[in-house]
């Protein structure tokens, strides 16, 4: 970690000063000696405080990194689910031939849902199973429609 050496230097320099003061025989009995000794004590206190702050900062960095990792995981999960939900079905309106797009979730929905054409208001799909094997118009094209529906759904899934 950057800065770690500075803290070590600071403590070493204070230790050197303490040794120097002792070696030079600076006495606490003199006025100057008392001031110098007090200054060195204050410096030692500062060096220890800085060391504590560095350790706390390192803990904080580790904690932030773990939060960042968790957030990334959450984001990945969130966007994966978003993609899964974006599944649409297209059907052609039997009246005006317009392509009507609706959420594929309607197919599995337990409530009765009618999908109407936004252009002519014709009902293009009801999720009561009636559109699975027969068409309300009575014409013989249900197999084709069914295949088209599946094909449209498949192509949309592949696009994602
Ligand atoms: Zn229509």
From TrEMBL:
Region (Disordered): 138-160
Stretches with biased composition (Acidic residues): 140-149
Keyword Protein biosynthesis listed: no
UniProt entry keywords in alphabetical sequence: Coiled coil
Composition bias, Basic and acidic residues: 150-160
Coiled-coil features, chain-numbered ranges: 57-84
Keyword Cell inner membrane: no
Name recorded for this polypeptide: AraC family transcriptional regulator
